[in-house]
Design goal:
Layout (H helix, E strand, L loop, with lengths): L1 E8 L4 H14 L3 E7 L8 E9 L12 E6 L14 E10 L8 E2 L4 E5 L1 H8 L6 H12 L3 H11 L3 H15 L3 E4 L1 E2 L40 E5 L9 H5 L5 E4 L2 E4 L9 H5 L5 E5 L5
């Protein structure tokens, strides 16, 4: 049995990627099983999807504990996902990144297949939806019959134009993927640690079994966006302050400030601001 875990953020299509790849293997005559695991069901939150592939009927229904292959659809997840806990060290990581494998610093040496799936997505879709491109990277590395993958895209995307666009992204990644080894991360000081009273064994997107954990769980890791308030345009109408679902906007006298540790980048404040004083900017990921 070959087992795959997809790590992505809500809105990047991790579950859809698992379904497409499952269909590709189905057309190869294999038995497949694909299912998701959600924590916070919202755009930007870390999500996982699982895929099992076998030549025999699959009876196991539990989440995958030790994957042969791991997809990372967003490089910033490396800071919040413990890869080693659910991955065979001799397996393959399919990583969305513009860097070369040796430039990726991880806690251990891993086999990496790297492609700039986000860059391809922006080029074709003008959006950050890297799932189709990263499937092309996988097909390149494991030598999956690309015709089966194309057929899977056509099965999922009934619209011919949509299928063609997604196949184009997969082909670009197929031809631009780099295989190699990661390097060892030298700086251990940035590793986030929880206070001893909290359970350290939680999974990404899981539940803390402790009271008051919302102030420990800095949910800004759910997004690559940050809200910025231009006070020169702000009229202090306080709509953003009232309607922010995560209470991330603080009042400091006559000024408003975004609590960046907890802002999930949902974009509600940007949408409702009558003066267009709030914008969502890309965060600089230290990775």
């Amino acid at each position: 049995m070959y087992e795959i875990i997809f790590h992505g953020r809500g809105g990047q299509g991790a579950l859809l990627a698992a379904r497409i790849l499952a269909n590709a293997y189905f057309f190869e005559g294999r038995y497949i099983e694909a299912f998701p695991h959600f924590g916070g069901e919202r755009r930007g939150a870390p999500v996982r999807a699982f895929l099992r592939i076998d030549d025999q009927p699959i009876r196991v229904k539990s989440p995958i504990q030790t994957a042969d292959c791991t997809f990372i659809l967003d490089g910033s997840l490396l800071a919040v996902v413990d890869i080693a806990s659910n991955f065979k060290q001799e397996g393959i990581i399919i990583l969305n990144s513009p860097l070369k494998p040796a430039e990726i610093k991880l806690k251990e040496l891993y086999n990496l297949a790297v492609c700039d799936a986000t860059g391809i997505s922006w080029k074709i879709l003008k959006k950050n939806i890297p799932n189709s491109a990263i499937l092309g990277a996988y097909a390149s590395v494991v030598k999956l019959n690309f015709d089966s993958l194309k057929k899977a895209f056509q099965e999922i995307f009934k619209n011919d134009k949509a299928a063609k666009i997604n196949i184009e992204m997969a082909e670009l990644a197929y031809n631009s993927t780099t295989m190699g080894r990661s390097s060892i991360e030298g700086n251990k000081e940035k590793e986030t640690r929880l206070p001893d009273k909290f359970d350290r064994s939680f999974e990404t997107g899981g539940i803390y079994k402790a009271d008051g954990s919302s102030r420990v769980n800095k949910t800004s890791s759910w997004t690559t966006k940050r809200a910025v308030i231009d006070m020169s345009k702000c009229s202090s109408c306080l709509l953003c302050y009232v309607l922010c679902p995560d209470v991330c906007i603080k009042r400091e006298g006559k000024k408003l400030k975004v609590e960046e540790d907890y802002c999930k980048g949902c974009g509600i404040c940007e949408q409702i601001c009558p003066r267009e004083a709030i914008s969502l900017n890309e965060k600089v990921i230290d990775r």
